[in-house]
């Protein structure tokens, strides 16, 4: 997946600037460990090795899935570009839609956010922790080991496996991870030349939307493994933001929406998080952490 995503960014950069780009593979701890995402602390496990290569000057820029990027800024690096967002939704790969799966169906996902929201929709299903790349996860469905798996729709599209999707889970059913479907192109903070070069890839509306989403996550003091979903839509100067925190058993949730001007993305995200905390969101996050 990382190679595919980096290849898309490289091809677009070459198309726009004529500059050739060499892909350099980097294996992160999150790629090789068998531990569940919740046991890893979640935040940054797919990022630190890439940043090390960046800081050491071994690569000029790094491409991340934005939803994996910690919300706490690292002063050594800066996001030079956030390209136009792909599909933000989660998707179910299965033999039927979620409502039509048998009672007690086994659904593969290691994400507390997806587990919590799946349990809200179908309290009877069994959520099975699962790791591995997209192909591996899909294979567990085709082999009959699982009734289904939930993956990011954007990832399935980038892998060319969109035909496997039985159902797109709309935001009314399952709010995505903050930044889901978007990529972040990161460079060293002292590389003004690359900041300018890579700026051609940036999509202002996507940057605004994911800034609002990630501000909610940061203000809730939750990592990317927390049961937090958020999605912002930008329409001209208008921004609509919805976020949720769900108890891991699916029994309780705090879900709030707000709207305002797109130039106030950070304020909207911060204020929405404060409203959610006032309604007990922090307690739900704390319960999941323990």
Automatic annotation (TrEMBL):
Listed Gene3D superfamilies: Periplasmic binding protein-like II (3.40.190.10), Porphobilinogen deaminase, C-terminal domain (3.30.160.40)
Gene Ontology, cellular component aspect: cytoplasm
Domain Porphobilinogen deaminase N-terminal: residue ranges: 1-194
Cofactor(s) of this protein: dipyrromethane
GO biological process, one term: heme biosynthetic process
Boundaries of every Porphobilinogen deaminase C-terminal domain copy: 209-277
Subunit: Monomer.
Protein name as it appears in the record: Hydroxymethylbilane synthase
Organism the protein comes from: Planomonospora venezuelensis
Taxonomic lineage from the root: Bacteria, Bacillati, Actinomycetota, Actinomycetes, Streptosporangiales
């Amino acid at each position: 997946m990382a190679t595919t995503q980096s290849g898309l960014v490289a091809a677009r950069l070459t198309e726009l600037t004529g500059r050739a780009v060499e892909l350099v593979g980097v294996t992160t701890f999150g790629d090789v460990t068998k531990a569940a995402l919740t046991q890893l602390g979640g935040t940054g496990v797919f990022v630190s090795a890439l940043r090390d290569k960046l800081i050491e000057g071994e690569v000029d820029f790094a491409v991340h899935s934005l939803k994996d990027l910690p919300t706490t800024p690292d002063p050594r690096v800066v996001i030079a570009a956030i390209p136009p967002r792909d599909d933000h939704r989660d998707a179910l790969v299965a033999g039927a839609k979620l409502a039509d799966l048998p009672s007690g169906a086994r659904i593969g996902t290691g994400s507390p956010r997806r587990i919590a929201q799946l349990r809200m929709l179908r309290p009877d299903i069994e959520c099975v922790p699962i790791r591995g790349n997209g192909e591996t996860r899909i294979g567990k469905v085709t082999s009959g080991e699982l009734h289904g798996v939930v993956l990011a729709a954007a990832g399935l599209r980038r892998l060319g496996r969109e035909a496997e999707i039985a159902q797109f889970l709309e935001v009314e059913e399952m709010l995505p991870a903050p930044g889901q479907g978007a990529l972040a192109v990161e460079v060293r903070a002292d590389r003004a030349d690359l900041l300018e070069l890579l700026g051609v890839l940036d999509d202002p509306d996507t940057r605004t939307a994911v800034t609002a989403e990630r501000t909610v996550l940061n203000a809730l003091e939750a990592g990317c493994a927390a049961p937090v979903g958020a999605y912002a839509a930008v329409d001209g100067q208008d921004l609509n933001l919805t976020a949720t925190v769900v108890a891991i058993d699916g029994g309780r949730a705090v879900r709030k929406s707000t709207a305002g001007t797109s130039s106030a993305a950070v304020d909207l995200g911060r204020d929405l998080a404060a409203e959610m905390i006032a309604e007990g969101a922090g307690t739900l996050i704390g319960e999941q952490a323990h």
